[in-house]
Amino acid sequence: MSQNIVINPNYNTTSQEVKQIIDGYDSINDYVAKGDRNSIKKVTLANNKIATIKSFKIPNIVNKYVYRFLRESKAQRSYDYAKKLIDLGFLTPYPIGYIEEKTALQFLKSYYLCEMVDADLTYREMVHDANWPNRTEILKQFTHFTYQLHEAGIEFLDHSPGNTLIKQVDNNKYDFYLVDLNRMNFHDSMDFETRMKNFSRLTPHKEMVEIMAKEYAKLINKPEQEVVEAMWNKTEEFQFKFHQKQTRKKKLKTLIGKK
């Protein structure tokens, strides 16, 4: 097995430091998130900055070949897209580097490192708490942020509740940081349908959709009702497909459990 270590040349760390961290990854117990597929841990670097390390699990047998020879890994895409977002003027935790483990014929694990952002909330908190302080204003500013992404031709395919970190920077001003960046499309321009679909994963609550849609309508100079209907239709389509998928998973687990 070999390791491919790529470090941001503008960041104060070394390949040796990163290699030591990755080699000892399993012994790090400070989790930011722990999942079946991917986990995120945090560590303090020699420069006293706190970094997060996202570990991508070993891909399936097909993707072991795909990521080895045909396509950039999730870790590399996370790193490349973070740099591109920053170059375009958007916020994301500062990219430090990525590591790939592979053999001559297969791709194995990969890791993405970035600085940790001390956020106040994610979009998810507002989904679960209708009384979140200043919620309507945050949603409006989030809509402006998403509009700016769209105007720049950025289609963030994982534009979902946990993937925008929100940090209050003034009494009524918020910054938005994108995370989980490995699935993005970049366009010369984005049509109305693509823009509406990009809101579909955020919330099942119509009142939140209406706040965002009415604000977005002002920004693109379209009638409010047209944008509300379009955004809500895309949201309902996503929710229907999501619940269908969850039902299939439950049935499959039940069948496996009976065997």
Describe the structure.
- It contains 8 helices and 11 strands.
- Strands 1-5-6-4-3-2 form a 6-stranded antiparallel sheet, with helices on both faces.
- Helix content is 43%, strand content 24%.
- The model has no long low-confidence stretch (mean pLDDT 94).
- With 259 residues, it is α+β, with helices and mostly antiparallel strands.
- The protein has 2 domains: 2-115, Phosphorylase Kinase, domain 1 (2-Layer Sandwich); 121-243, Transferase(Phosphotransferase), domain 1 (Orthogonal Bundle).
Keyword list:
259 residues; alpha+beta; 2 domains; 3-stranded antiparallel β-sheet; Transferase(Phosphotransferase), domain 1; 24% strand; Phosphorylase Kinase, domain 1
Short overview:
The protein folds into 2 domains: 2-115, Phosphorylase Kinase, domain 1 (2-Layer Sandwich); 121-243, Orthogonal Bundle (Transferase(Phosphotransferase), domain 1). Helix content is 43%, strand content 24%.
> How large is the share of residues in beta strands?
15-25%
How many discrete domains?
2
**H/E topology pattern:** EHEEEHHEEEHHEEEEHHH
Q: What is the CATH topology assignment of the largest domain?
A: Transferase(Phosphotransferase), domain 1
Structural class: alpha+beta
The termini sit apart by 37 Å
Helix content: 40-55%
Q: In what order do the strands lie side by side in the largest sheet?
A: 1-5-6-4-3-2
